[in-house]
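Lab notebook, design round three. We kept the backbone fixed and only want residue identities now. Task for the bench partner: fill in a sequence for the structure below.
Input structure tokens:
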């Protein structure tokens, strides 16, 4: 029977200040380090240069402690071109915006060309676009207006601008109104006094982005008294009961409240309020003209109309 001979090394262990003894230990990979002290038994031939407890043969970042990963992207800070970036799904494994590079060559890219993502990068982190001066038209705007949003200035310091998108939101209701440079408002989704916001987002070819916003507070419009009628319209006597009815509307989509006031033409003072007036010989005389004034109110806005009999 053949007997397997394992390599051994002679190690010195200090047992006491003045007492040094020799003993032998097993060293499977023959790297001069006893297996009991070896970080990677069987594979380690280079040691642990960064003293992070991971032998260099298996160390993803042999020049820095793998446990130091500020942005949590799986690349040690010493080998991370952008150690402050953390969104790995959006910006790549090394934390660099728009890049999927790893720390395998001097430029921070994983291929021999220094560019693993075909973006033409040179190892410099991508910079986001710049968007300013966003505005909304027309002004004033109402809750039935068609609004247009436009970014005043859009640029990209790297020359990789992809485009600009827009999104609308009713701030007071925390309600999204839709995408696009234009939105047509309806009274069901916005009311006078509420604020509508447009967000302009500029994005480059590497998915880096920047935003700018503009807001407009919707103005109020007065209601309208479209018609006023008194019945009976003729043949009323000094003891008749008159009824006043107004047709009203509001361009903002609210329902105006209507109030009525009665007067005698040529006389001062109001002789009655409400939609009906009961005449008496003391109140009127034959030949008097009775006037009904209807007032429509919506919010702080009003309109009035009159009818006579």
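Proposed sequence:
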């Amino acid at each position: 029977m053949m007997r397997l001979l394992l390599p051994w090394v002679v190690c010195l262990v200090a047992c006491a200040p003045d007492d040094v003894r020799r003993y032998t230990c097993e060293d499977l990979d023959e790297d001069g380090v006893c297996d009991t002290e070896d970080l990677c038994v069987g594979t380690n031939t280079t040691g642990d240069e960064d003293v992070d407890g991971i032998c260099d043969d298996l160390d993803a970042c042999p020049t820095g402690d793998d446990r130091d990963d500020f942005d949590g992207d799986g690349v040690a800070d010493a080998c991370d071109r952008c150690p402050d970036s953390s969104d790995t799904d959006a910006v790549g494994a090394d934390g660099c915006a728009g890049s999927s590079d790893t720390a395998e060559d001097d430029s921070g890219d994983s291929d021999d060309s220094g560019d693993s993502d075909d973006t033409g990068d040179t190892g410099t982190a991508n910079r986001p676009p710049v968007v300013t001066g966003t505005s909304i038209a027309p002004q004033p705007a109402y809750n039935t207006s068609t609004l247009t949003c436009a970014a005043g200035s859009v640029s990209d310091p790297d020359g990789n601008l992809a485009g600009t998108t827009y999104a609308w939101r009713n701030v007071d209701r925390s309600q999204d109104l839709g995408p696009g440079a234009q939105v047509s408002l309806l009274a069901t989704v916005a009311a006078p006094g509420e604020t509508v916001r447009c967000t302009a987002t500029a994005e480059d070819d590497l998915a880096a982005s920047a935003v700018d916003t503009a807001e407009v507070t919707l103005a109020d419009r007065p209601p309208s008294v479209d018609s006023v009628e008194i019945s009976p319209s003729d043949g009323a006597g000094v003891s008749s009961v008159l009824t006043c009815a107004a047709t009203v509307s509001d361009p903002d989509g609210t329902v105006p409240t209507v109030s009525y006031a009665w007067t005698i033409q040529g006389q001062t003072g109001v002789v009655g309020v409400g939609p009906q007036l009961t005449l008496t010989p003391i109140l009127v005389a034959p030949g008097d003209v009775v006037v009904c004034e209807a007032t429509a109110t919506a919010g702080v806005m009003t309109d009035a109309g009159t009818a006579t009999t």
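Keep this in mind before ordering anything: Helices lie at 88-91.
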